[in-house]
Amino acid sequence: MNQQNKCSLLKEEVKSLTDAFKKERDRHKRTALVFRILSVILAASITILLGLKVSAEIEMFLKNLALAFGAIITVVSAYEAFFSPRALWIRETITYSRLKDLQRDIKLTCDESNEVSREEFENLKKRLDDILQDDLKEWIKLR
Description:
Elements (H helix, E strand, L loop, with lengths): L2 H49 L4 H28 L1 H25 L8 H25 L1
């Protein structure tokens, strides 16, 4: 394979990875945000529900509702602890940023004809491998 094709292939690979990490980063960001907001809203609701003074029948219903909200908070917290969407979001943001830097450097290194020296290509490929290896190591730490 000539250097021209290698440069095009590297550009395509980095673009594909960048798009995938951006998608996952955004998904984990949304999940982390939703769970955090849900926990806060439910916790505040429990306080309000237990503090309301109304008829005995309604008070019993509100206490049961507060109990259910407490159980939901427990499930949400367990999910957050097990799947760590916030940690995944941070990890994927770092990898995404590093891939964007690499993508920019590839554009600057490869000229319009997509020609690049063998040494430059090997350096760019090594950087990509290092980025992916670091990401894998961080993922393993989270698991």
